[in-house]
Design brief:
This protein is mainly beta. Helix content is about 5%, strand content about 40%.
């Protein structure tokens, strides 16, 4: 096969906006499907060690469920991914109040973040297929300052990589933190939990959280804690631990401080393998952190794309990012974007077998 991209209608939003789905295929028959609503990846189909293909991301089979039920399944999250404490922050002496949609905090951009917008699409043709999505977040949208011009490029390579390049510019000082919220299950979506998945994280430290899941500001060592993934470890090993941080998150819902120091090129952040299928996934990024989330708040009310009911722990997220609540944490890497600057980050999900 040769690389290809195909467009088809996916549905119409409740507001009457048409949504398209783009199917990207590489020469090894790997397939990635993306819709213009939220930039959501509806499917990533990759082979197991026997050459059998399966979709390895959780999601739905219709637009209405993505609009009304989705826990950010495989969506672009922003303008600020993850949590901002007390739904407020201060820039240049001005306090900005943003919607509280996660208790007293703001999560993933607010009530109508980037995951709930219809993006403009442009096909990229060549040796590798790609899709450029663009969105203009207007000054004041969800309480954030500045007209933020965002582009997200999905590229499917012949090395079975899904590369995501994010860029953003603004006309007023603002904050920005962009990621993709894919829930992975390397056995295949709808096949059960991810507790047998073996994870390695290139992180000596993590950011502990308070009772509202906001970082305390500490960069704590993972040594001798359930957060030590410096050597390969199955998720089940410590997810039932009585460690106070595990209890607070109902499992893993924590930012890990990556060891890589060269941010100009994507460095290895995480490795995941699933012993039954043999599927593997490497995560590389230019970002300073990655959020490991084990689907702790998924309940049995969601029916997935293949018709199975999703339950707690049926998917894991590795959200490459700047740290949560950075606008209120001066010691964290800055998420401030000034006019004339470009926020530019890259994350790669590379699939293989063992």
């Amino acid at each position: 096969m040769s690389a290809a991209i195909h467009k088809q209608p996916y549905g119409t939003t409740a507001d009457g906006l048409p949504v398209d789905e783009y199917t990207l295929t590489n020469s090894h028959s790997m397939v990635v499907k993306i819709i213009t609503y939220g930039g959501i990846i509806t499917s990533i189909s990759v082979p197991d060690r026997d050459g059998q293909f399966a979709n390895v991301v959780l999601g739905f089979n219709n637009l209405a469920d993505y609009e009304t039920k989705s826990p950010y399944f495989s969506a672009i999250t922003g303008r600020y991914a993850n949590r901002i404490a007390n739904a407020r922050f201060t820039l240049n002496g001005v306090e900005y109040k943003i919607p509280a949609n996660n208790g007293i905090n703001s999560l993933h951009g607010g009530l109508k973040g980037f995951d709930k917008q219809v993006w403009s699409a442009r096909e990229i043709h060549g040796d590798e297929t790609g899709l450029e999505l663009s969105y203009l977040s207007k000054d004041g949208e969800e309480g954030y300052p500045g007209n933020l011009d965002v582009k997200v490029v999905y590229t499917l390579t012949d090395a079975n990589e899904l590369r995501i390049d994010y860029s953003a510019t603004t006309d007023k000082t603002t904050v920005v933190n962009l990621t993709n919220h894919a829930y992975f299950n390397l056995k295949g979506e709808g096949t059960g939990s991810i507790y047998d998945h073996i994870v390695t994280l290139n992180a000596d430290r993590y950011t502990p959280v308070d009772e509202n899941l906001i970082p305390t500001g500490e960069l704590a060592s993972v040594a001798d804690t359930p957060f030590d993934f410096r050597q390969p470890k199955a998720i089940i090993t410590d997810i039932r631990s009585g460690h106070p941080q595990i209890v607070r998150g109902r499992g893993y819902d924590h930012n890990f401080v990556l060891n890589t120091t060269n941010r100009t090129q994507p460095g290895l952040a995480a490795q995941v393998s699933e012993p039954v299928s043999g599927r593997t996934m490497d995560v590389l990024t230019t970002e300073p952190g990655v959020q490991l989330y084990t689907g702790n708040f998924i309940d049995a009310t969601l029916v997935g794309s293949a018709g199975s009911v999703y339950r707690q722990g049926d998917g894991l997220c590795l959200e490459t990012q700047h740290f949560p609540d950075s606008p209120n944490q001066p010691d964290f890497p800055s998420t401030v974007l000034q006019p004339g600057e470009t926020c530019q980050t890259t994350t790669i999900f590379k699939f293989g077998v063992s």
